[in-house]
Amino acid sequence: MQIPSGYHTESPKRPATQDDGIAGLVTILDYVRANGPTTRPRLVEATGLSRAVVTQRVTELLDHGLLENGELGPSTGGRAPRIVHFRAGAGHLLAADLGATSTSVAVVDLSGKILCHVEEPSDISSGPEASLGRVEELFQQCLADVDAPGSLWGIGIGVPGPVEFEQGRPVSPPIMPGWDGFDVRGRFADYEVPVFVDNDVNVMALAELRAGVARGSENVVFVKIGTGIGAGIIVRGQLHRGTQGCAGDIGHIQATNDQSIICRCGNVGCLEALAGGAALSRDAAGLAQDGRSPLLAKLLEEKGSLEAADVAFAASHGDAPATELIVNAGRLVGSTLAGIVNFFNPSLVVIGGGVAGSGDLLLATIRQGVYQRSLPLATRDLLVKRSTPGGLAGVVGAATMVTDELFAPQRLGQWLAAGTPGGS
After folding, report:
1. What is d(CA 258, CA 243) in angstroms, rounded to the nearest whole number?
2. Does domain 214-387 match CATH 3.20.20.100?
3. Which residues, 6 or more positions from 67, have their beta carbon under 8 angstroms from its beta carbon?
4. What does DSSP assign to residue 270?
5. Where in the chain is the domain with CATH 3.30.420.40?
6. What angle do CA 309, 119, 117 make, to 5 degrees?
7. Fold classification of 22-86 (topology level)
8. Which one-letter DSSP state was computed for residue 168?
9. 203 contacts 223 by C-beta, under 8 angstroms
10. Which CATH number fits domain 91-208+392-418: 3.30.420.40, 3.10.50.30, 3.40.1050.10, 3.40.50.1980?
11. Distance in Å from the first CA to the final CA of the chain
């Protein structure tokens, strides 16, 4: 997927109930960021703010360097209006997506356009110092490879475990030994810019909302099926993190009473322990070792280990035991999502992650489970789609997290007078 140079999603019209300065600036900035270049008359129509307020706030944003004047727009009968643009090149961001088995970093401009991207295999269990040290090395490598615009404005990092968002610290992450309570934000304090840390599924959900298949949707569930399983929840166009930041941790919903299926979290019968990538790898190895799947046995002998992609490969080549693994995983995920659909009533469910990208069989089985087990009204207009940003979702979402936070009403006023967020 080509990441757009700006997000073009029609924002809902906001009522001009009260403009305290910052609120008007945020309203206008959000609209231009979401919809691209526009005119002052269009801003009046779209935001509900008065013409005088729009003129004043646009002037302030021009003075602060967040907007810039462009060419003349089409006339509607009078003088042609001047088009204003978001200054995506006013600064740049560093974004990192740490998965269980890979690390992805990028340099991104303020509109979400990726200027440099590097991805490599990694092991999150190596601990925070080793993992984040490598992230910093990759940041510097990327910065050396591109002419990044403006100054550094912020850093966004996604990690594969629960995060207390306000503190920027992982909390008891099942697959991240040594990370519990680690000050990820403090690790990058030397950069002297705001640092935001969140669960990797939340940042991927933001990528879908701003630059993917969920653009323009209000209520969305994004599901990542990778080594583990998690969900990002979008409510009325905003990411819902919950009270402590762990909303959407569906991988640890109990999917069976079988006491022999022990999850990495310590509980039994978790969805992740039955249908996640690690579970598929485990079960595929069993099929190979006991001779039930000659194809998986051959792959195991050649590679030394099996991954979820190998299961999908075997299933696509007619291997019945591998097909059964995929179908069973899809049924379990679909059944769990049906409960979430009945409870939340979203308009869209997006399926992403490494396992989800392995083939159509899993997605079709998940769809079937959701539609069969959800209430008719909940599924009347429900769509279940595959993720579109693909391997870039993590870094796009991490960058989106940073700009959303920097331009939020409670933060914009803290740094606007200084010109950039550096040092704030």
Report:
1. 31
2. no
3. 29, 32, 58, 61, 84, 85, 86, 87
4. B
5. 91-208+392-418, 214-387
6. 130
7. Arc Repressor Mutant, subunit A (1.10.10)
8. T
9. no
10. 3.30.420.40
11. 34
How would you write the pLDDT of the chain (424 residues) with one tens digit per residue?
444 444 434 443 434 334 568 999 999 999 999 899 999 999 999 999 999 999 999 999 999 999 999 988 777 767 888 999 999 999 999 999 999 889 999 999 999 999 999 999 999 999 999 999 999 999 999 999 999 999 999 999 999 999 999 999 999 998 899 999 999 999 999 999 999 999 999 999 999 998 899 998 999 999 999 888 999 999 999 999 998 888 999 999 999 888 888 898 889 999 999 999 999 999 999 999 999 999 999 999 999 999 988 998 999 899 999 999 999 999 999 999 999 999 999 999 999 988 877 678 999 999 999 999 999 999 999 999 999 866 788 999 999 999 999 999 999 999 999 989 986 5
- 96-130 in b/e form (b: 16+ CB < 10 A) is bbbbbbbbbbbbbbbbbbbbbbbbeebebeeebee
Residues counted in the chain: 424
Cα 46 to the center of its chain, rounded Å: 27
